[in-house]
Amino acid sequence: MTVPDVPLENPAPPPQPMQPRHRLLLAVVTIAAAAFVASAIAAGLGYQTDRRLEAACGSILTVVNPEGASFDRLSSDVNSSKGVVRMLYGINRLGENSARRSVIVCTFGSGTVLASINPELIAASVDGKTIGPARIAFLNRFWLGKGAASG
After folding, report:
1. pLDDT tens digit sequence for 27-49
2. What does the DSSP assignment read for 84-96?
3. Which of 22, 71, 120, 149 could connect to 109 by a Cys-Cys bridge, CB 3.0–4.6 Å?
4. Residue 76's closest CA among 110, 36, 104?
5. DSSP H helical segments within the chain, as ranges?
């Protein structure tokens, strides 16, 4: 069965060109939406960077403390824009009944934080005592996995 062609009594009017004020409104809404999406992505990247920096700093506790000691991370403060992590932790040494509190401060290179999975350690201190450049190079090359990238 076929439907006969019947002319419409009120055909839809042809689409009108967008008025300048509507174009402006559309542009503003598009820019605002793009800015919102960009800030959400940046916040997510910042969170990932904070976690990466904190994990890298915490991972060297085993290297910079006595062999056989165990650690409890108590708190940490991450400033990812400066690449600095300050971590308070308790250290339990073998044969001791009580934990001693210590602070490690790690500074990472700002150029490589987002570019690599393993940030580059450029300075560190434990309880205010600076870790020397040879040990920093060792930590980067063999502990934090920068050896293959840096040669």
Report:
1. 777 776 666 555 555 444 444 56
2. EEEEEEEEE-TT-
3. 120
4. 104
5. 20-59, 61-64, 133-138, 147-150
